[in-house]
Description:
314 residues; 2 domains; N-(1-d-carboxylethyl)-l-norvaline Dehydrogenase, domain 2; alpha/beta; globular; two-stranded antiparallel ribbon
Amino acid sequence: MDTLDGINAEKAADQDGRITEVAVIGAGMMGRGIARTCAARGIQVALLEVEGEPLQRGMAQLNGEMDQEIARWGMTQSEKRAILARIKGAVDHLEASRAQIVIEAITEDFDRKKALFQQLDELCPPESIFVTNTSSLSITELAATTRREDRFIGLHFLNPVPKIPMVEIVRGLKTSDDTFRIVQDFARVLDKTPVEVFEYPGYITTRIIVTMLNEAMYVLMEGVATAESIDTAMKLGFNQPIGPLALADQIGLDEVMRWMKILHDELGDMKYRPCPLLRKMVRAGHLGKKAGRGFFHYDKDGRRLPATVSSHSV
């Protein structure tokens, strides 16, 4: 195998230019979902973290998530083995220099993303395309922190990544048409329908969904109905697979509040002001499924329990 020195993106491609090696930075819920999706389509993935403990935790959770799929007859043991064989976990970001596409999936914090991309800009060859999975931050502003603004783009995956059949492709002001085409083809290889978005705060999905989540929280806080009733009404009344409060729990209430704050700051519209109940729950550490408690309660495997949170207590 070639050493890391001198490897460029072209060496990782096969003769028809297909993407064969991808690096995913961040082994959290979104990062491991992206890594799993890429590996399931035959792509070699470097799943990178800053320390061993979060990497080990992420790999263990990835194992557990696929075991749950197997238990539901949604995946076979052989499929799981094939996926894991294509995912290499590492804490050395130099591994990203092998990849044609480098996908960032860390916390929604501009300064942390900026620092990461500046580090990657030094490590990766100029041919590598940088992708951010941000749901609300400016692609153009992030791209400007690197020396490859034309090869910088957003891919906004939704959770759960392996199951959602679309992805938003967000162009920054200087994203080249060639970069867009490559990433659009990559999305199709992942069996996702690519939706082109021109940069604007919240894009399509985040901008629309946070207003629904926020309003559902106000309905709960004002005592109009219980969390269970709100979600039942929205699921059955509008043919939604999951209710807004359960969806907020799944995303993470801290993450939802972060999206709302960014949109409120960027657009100045009061409809994005986080509901006081959401603020109260985040302060209490009731962050949703990942914390075992949000608008609903969950066991250690993320399965929902009967107890719910009322508008008067968290």
